[in-house]
Amino acid sequence: MENYNSTVVKEFILLGLTQSRDIQLLVFVLILIFYLIILPGNFLIILTIRSDPGLTAPLYFFLGNLAFLDASYSFIVAPRMLVDFVSEKKVISYRGCITQLFFLHFLGGGEGLLLVVMAFDRYIAICRPLHYSTVMNPRVCYALLLALWLGGFIHSIIQVALILRLPFCGPNQLDNFFCDVPQVIKLACTDTFVVELLMVFNSGLMTLLCFLGLLASYAVILCRVHGSTSEGKSKAVSTCTTHIIVIFLMFGPGIFIYTRPFRAFPADKVVSLFHTVIFPLLNPVIYTLRNQEVKASMRRLFNQHIA
């Protein structure tokens, strides 16, 4: 691989989601409405879990962290995308691009690992209920939380380190509405074959293995629940089904984007839109709508404030 000592490109031009002004306006309105409705819902979930002494189980602890991660993740792309929709010049600096890319993979990697932790929590709760309080004690929960944040950081810093080694001397047009690995790598002024392989291994393979591992773990849990006659059977099935839905929403687009060679496909931008803006905000809401305890706690919190 050729080595360059400096990067000439100081900024990137974002080509955006579409070149049609009418479609841009429509998407701007829809995303803004969705953002203003769903984002406060995520913060309401966090407030509810933090304020209700009855929601202290590890499941709710991790659900609150999922809502925080998803809300933070949505701030990386959505606000700038909305501004760019009404801007004539869609430009992001080189440093701004690298920063956006870092936080995108830092929080995204952390969320993927959080879903693994939540699957482990459900496995212990359903398959080893007598050991649950011992295994999933507060110290273990905080240790797992620290581990997933650290894992997300390591995953992201590898991506950034590989990008920073690449020279960018032109062109500087990114065919997307935000900075991500596949589009940025293609603008490098050198052969990127080895870097692409490393990126696919770091992002794509990790995403695919987590996805398959999570599906396998929930298959084991559901088989165990199916053979059970306990009263909590329906609740366990409902919880696991919710987790599986979120797993498909989280990992499906990620597998599509990162587990293949970095070539442009017509569906890339739409998949990226759902992956970075829509699904992250929906994940905690899906959990909440299928969780009777959280919904009941929200109603009590609401009634207390209007009383």
Automatic annotation (TrEMBL):
It comes from the Eukaryota. It is found in: Cell membrane; Membrane. Residues 41-287 form the G-protein coupled receptors family 1 profile domain. It is a multi-pass membrane protein. GO terms for molecular function: G protein-coupled receptor activity; olfactory receptor activity. The keyword Iron does not apply. Keywords: Cell membrane, G-protein coupled receptor, Membrane, Olfaction, Receptor, Sensory transduction, Transducer, Transmembrane, Transmembrane helix. The keyword Membrane applies. Its main location: membrane. InterPro entries: GPCR_Rhodpsn, GPCR_Rhodpsn_7TM, Olfact_rcpt, Olfactory_Receptors. GO terms for cellular component: plasma membrane. The chain crosses the membrane at residues 23-47, 59-78, 98-120, 140-164, 205-225, 237-258, 270-289. Belongs to the G-protein coupled receptor 1 family. Putative odorant or sperm cell receptor. This is Olfactory receptor. It comes from Neovison vison (American mink).
